[in-house]
Automatic annotation (TrEMBL), chains A, B:
Residues 10-64 form the HTH lacI-type domain. The keyword Cell membrane does not apply. It comes from Kiloniella litopenaei. Signal peptide: none annotated. GO terms for molecular function: DNA-binding transcription factor activity; transcription cis-regulatory region binding. It comes from the Bacteria. SUPFAM superfamilies: lambda repressor-like DNA-binding domains, Periplasmic binding protein-like I. Keywords: DNA-binding, Transcription, Transcription regulation. This is Transcriptional regulator.
DNA sequence: CTGTTAGCGCTTTCAA
DNA sequence: TTGAAAGCGCTAACAG
């Protein structure tokens, strides 16, 4: 018969004995002090302090059937965009019992599905996933999990549960409109490996220009390589080679926009006089660049904050009024597109 | 007497019954298939598949006393530097049973200590912490935990257990030497909020220049604000104001270096003719910049990979030969400091 | 190679 | 308001 010793750390039973109460009373006291009489409360508090008791979350989770864990599935760990949101999520869970568990899907639907299964095996309290293009399988898992789920960055037709983000179609249109407003007419598009949100912005650009009969496929430069500032330079170089009369470019993100700017500088092309440039995300560097770079500001921190807010609300039993939040976007006009 | 129903998902007992074996056999089979006979193995595998069984890590952790979790404490979630290493850590644990748990210390020793307690309450298999400046309290916790611990990014005198990183003093010296080699002599320093590693690089710069009697405190521009490209511009502007004869700057990181470059461009100061610029980390954009920016390359991905390697080794029982790994650094010379 | 039994640390259920 | 007993899903220990 197996006698096993614990980790050496104080357990709830140790605290209970030390305080001369039942273990369950200590348990109650940890979760809701108001359920324990004043007298016992202070005694237990003292014991906790003296024994340096820290509850074991996995034992709690096992016993209660729910873990104080919020799972977050993001497509990339080294993309500053997601990092901003992760930071918000961490910040917002700071004074809650919830722990954040991060999964890296690498933009791969199968990996997402796999991680989802693993996460669900831990009975997380809620899940946050990026985008609205989960596989059917993932959607099924998410629905059956019966916990709050937030899709972030993007809003669409049929949210699985809740969603917090923006319309990338509208953002794509806004970029084109801004350039047209500023008098640019031969507008190119630079993009590296596309994610669904980039695809939708690109598609909006295509549609818009086609409707104006000024779409020219020569001006769309794509690559399957991962996005980077260097790739931005490369794409700009190609564009200038293929379609030298292009007078402005929409970039899939700010890294590419910065690379485009550098390439223009290297080739002596003046921005915005000879070439307008607009990026997406409005990273901090866009303002610092010389000339400063126009971009679409997306509030990535807020997206994370709101996602957690919604989750906590639901976890507290408040039925949410609003299942979908449009965080919008703002076009920040700077020198790189200011012609008038 | 409490009758409770589980989460609805299949448990190990379900699988055992379905396969007509004992639960423990299923357990063994999951952890080491070679310990189970061929015959039962295939039967169990079938049951697992049919019931879609996924083991519950918290139950396993509770029963075995050790969680398949590697805790990682980093000072910032939105710093690309740490993101690169996190990615490496995630990648390296990909095909292992280990899960990565991230804690954000916000460069705060107390927060680090707090998170450490929380993490340790979960019996992690190993821990990774940043730097070598943990509080006494944290060091004690780390030592008593009796698990593999890796300090990363920096190597120093008394590693708690293992460490993987580089000497920031040597890096600081290398930066100064490079500039001197290139004929720069009035060398400034730009830095935002300092972390211990930046401090050591700055200190190395001070020492070096003092020994050459060419240290001038006017040329050291510091701020407590968080680092950013915009701050880089601001610092450069200040430096030019205070010490206009400065002919080169060492930047605490690449963001600041990029800002410094933009400020020079805005002021019509030619780089490197009138101003040399060197950054730290060698982010991808440094090569793309125009003119391209010299920087110190630190292999942040490798640091993460090696940290996990070391941990896995130890977890597999191999006693490590090497407790400290110097991942070194490489000065990547580019246009921004190339005078000869 | 396989199974039985006890128990990880906590919470639920039920009773006082 | 408090507690005793049972059990969450799994594995260690021991036995066969």
């Amino acid at each position: 018969m197996g006698k096993r010793r614990g980790s050496g750390r104080a357990t709830i039973t140790d605290v209970a004995e030390h305080a001369g109460v039942g273990a369950i009373t200590v348990s109650r006291m940890m979760r809701d002090p108001s359920k324990v009489s004043e007298k016992l409360r202070s005694r237990i508090e003292k014991s906790i302090r003296e024994l340096q008791y820290i509850p074991d979350p996995k034992a709690r989770a096992l016993a209660s059937g729910r873990a104080d864990v919020i799972g977050v599935l993001i497509p990339s760990l080294s993309n500053i965009i997601f990092a901003d949101t992760l930071r918000a999520i961490h910040d917002s869970t700071q004074n809650t019992p919830y722990q954040v568990l991060i999964g890296n899907t690498r933009y791969d639907a199968e990996e997402e599905n796999h991680l989802l299964s693993l996460f669900l095996a831990q009975n997380p309290a809620a899940l946050i996933v990026v985008g609205i293009d989960q596989s059917d399988n993932s959607i099924k898992l998410l629905q059956e999990a019966n916990i709050p789920v937030v899709q972030i960055y993007e809003i669409g037709q049929n949210p699985i549960d809740m969603s917090v983000g923006l319309s990338h179609i509208a953002a794509g249109e806004a970029m084109v409109e801004h350039l047209l407003d500023q008098g640019f007419s031969k507008i190119g598009y630079l993009a590296a490996r596309l994610d669904p949100r980039m695809e939708r912005r690109l598609e909006a650009y295509r549609k818009k220009l086609k409707s104006l009969e000024s779409f020219d496929p020569k001006r769309v430069i794509l690559t399957n390589k991962a996005s980077s500032v260097n790739i931005g330079r490369e794409l700009m170089r190609q564009l200038i080679g293929c379609a030298p009369d292009t007078d402005a470019v929409i970039c899939a993100n700010d890294d590419i926009a910065l690379g485009a700017l550098f390439e223009c500088q290297a080739q002596g092309i003046s921005v915005p006089e000879q070439m307008g440039i607009i990026g997406f995300n409005d990273l901090e560097m866009m303002q610092a660049a010389y000339p400063s770079l126009t971009s679409i500001r997306t509030d990535r921190y807020k997206i994370g904050t709101l996602a957690v807010d919604k989750i906590l609300q639901r976890l507290n039993g408040d039925e949410t009024d609003q299942k979908q939040i449009d965080t919008g976007f703002e076009l920040i006009q700077r020198d790189s597109t200011s012609r008038r």
